[in-house]
Amino acid sequence: SVTATATMIINKIESSGKKTIVYGDWSAGNNLRGSRPTIGIGLKRQLAKKFEIINLDEYRTSKLDFKNHEVCKNLQVGGKSVHSMLTYRTENNCPGNIGRDLNAVRNMLYIALEIIRTGERPVAFRRNRNAEGLSELVVSSESGPVHDDGDIVLE
Prior knowledge:
By secondary structure, the protein is of the alpha+beta class. Helices cover 27% and strands 25% of the residues. The chain contains 3 helices and 7 strands; from the N terminus they run αβαββββαββ. The chain has helices spanning 2-16, 41-48, 100-118; strands at 20-24, 52-56, 73-77, 80-89, 95-99, 137-140, 144-147. The strands form 3 sheets. It has a 3-stranded antiparallel sheet. Strands 1-2 form a two-stranded parallel ribbon. A hairpin with a 2-residue loop joins strand 3 (73-77) and strand 4. Helix 1 (2-16) crosses helix 2. It is globular and about 45 Å long. The chain starts with a helix and ends in an 8-residue tail after the last strand.
C-alpha cells in the first residue's frame, strides 16, 4: 500500500538527516478531466507531510549525458533501438552505456544543486532556448526578469 511504502521511505530519509526531497514532475502539465491521475501522487503527498518537496521539471534530463550535457543516443542492439538505454562517449572517448532513468536522476541532482548555487537552471536544461543555446528573456512587471522556462533571474 502507499502508506506502507511511504512509511518505509520516510524512515529511510529521516535516518539520513535530510529535510528536502527533489521530486521530478514528469514534465507533465495539469491532468485533464477523465485522464488517469499522476502515478505516485499519494506517495508524494505522504512525503510532503514530513519533508520539503521541491518539484523539478524533468525537461531534457533523460536525453542529455549527465557528465557533459550532450545529447545521448539510444543503444542499438541487433539493429533495434533500446529506448531505456543510452550511449555516450567517456572522457577517454570510449563508448559507454547508461540507463535512461539513472542518467535522468543524476541530471536532476545536478540541476537542483545548480539552482541552489546560482539561482538559475543550467542552460542545457532550459526550455525555449535560442540558437546559441540560451533562454529567451521575458520581463514580468510583477516579479522582475524571468526566463521562458520559469527560472527567476537573480541580478
